[in-house]
Amino acid sequence: MTPNLILLAVPAFFVFIGVELWLSRRRGRRDYRFSDAIANLSCGVGQQAIVALVSAGVFVYVLLFERAALVRLSPSSPAVWLACFAAVDFCYYWAHRASHEVGFLWAAHEVHHQSEDYNLSVALRQSWLQRAFFWPFYWPLALLGFPPVVLLTTYSLNTLYQFWIHTRLVGRLGVLERVLNTPSHHRVHHGVDAEYLDKNYGGVLIVWDRLFGSFRQEEAPPRYGVVKPLRSFNAVRANLDPWRRLWRMAAAEPRLRGKLLVYLRPPGFRSEASPPEPGPLRTDPGYVVYGPERPLGSRAGAAALFLAALIGALVLLHHAPELTPLPLWAGAVAIVAALTAAGALLDGRTAPAPAPGLALARGEAPAAPLDRAL
């Protein structure tokens, strides 16, 4: 069995997040906000709980390798490992690019971009459905003969590399910028500014972007988030809201063809039948970053619920191979319920709040103060 490298790296993730937080505060920066960080980490915990339930993508890969591989490459060859590492990164580039250019794939990926901050916790803000939609891009590697153990290990290493590039504390890295995806390059990718949208898709290597015309150098500091902000710290809403918007747009289309195209066209596409989008846009003048101030009790409760969900997810992942479907599903439901409750405490409202960005643009006071910085 291939070890779960992501699970093994969890302690290191939290250590590095703590170090980044300490360095940020020491330099007088406010790169972390409590509620946003909890929301980011909640998305990651929920994603791992879902992974424990669904492994169809891996199953199909193994099936293709066993029954349809053109050759069987040796897992003991260093050349095979290097080739697979490059091939995985190439496949990731195209999966990632497609997820920014096709409506339903963007709905499965948008979660990762919703945070309006940029720090190491954002690296762990993962969609609960993205992996299912990304796997088909890797299946051709099974036909080329890359053994599942090689594929899964290099895939995990590719994912682990991308953790450290989610930081504002690291500047340009000289000649490495020509070949590798770096914090500077990935900050561009998370930027919502017009000049930065849909750029720098690479995972480990930036050469794919240079080859295929999607590269952009970082110039002005980016604004982070998505054009249509989520304005919530609820991990469940973060994962469902993109699909809800697609459904509303499809329902408004009078013909079947238009309904289908909603899911296939680029995320920014809107037809005459598309319903208006409520609330502010991230690019509106005077936009105020979402962050309602919450009392200490609410923040402590959210932290406790998150910690319970984290421990539950780690236990679930550790015992997943030996569990039957019923306890697996029960555990996942309990984890999602805890994350939902944590998000509700952090949002702290039962009715929609005014759009603070638009209020500020009119010269009015923001509806709520920003969430306190860590």
Automatic annotation (TrEMBL):
Record's keyword annotation contains Transmembrane helix: yes
Keywords recorded for this protein, A-Z: Lipid metabolism, Membrane, Oxidoreductase, Transmembrane, Transmembrane helix
GO MF, one annotated term: glyceryl-ether monooxygenase activity
Transmembrane segments: 6-23, 44-64, 137-158, 300-320, 326-346
InterPro entries: Fatty_acid_hydroxylase (IPR006694), Sterol_desaturase/TMEM195 (IPR051689)
Chief location of this protein within or outside the cell: membrane
One Pfam family matching this protein: FA_hydroxylase
Residue span, Fatty acid hydroxylase domain: 81-214
Record GO biological process: lipid biosynthetic process; membrane lipid metabolic process
Membrane topology value: Multi-pass membrane protein
Subcellular location: Endomembrane system
Coiled-coil region list: none
GO CC field: endomembrane system; membrane
Protein name: Fatty acid hydroxylase domain-containing protein
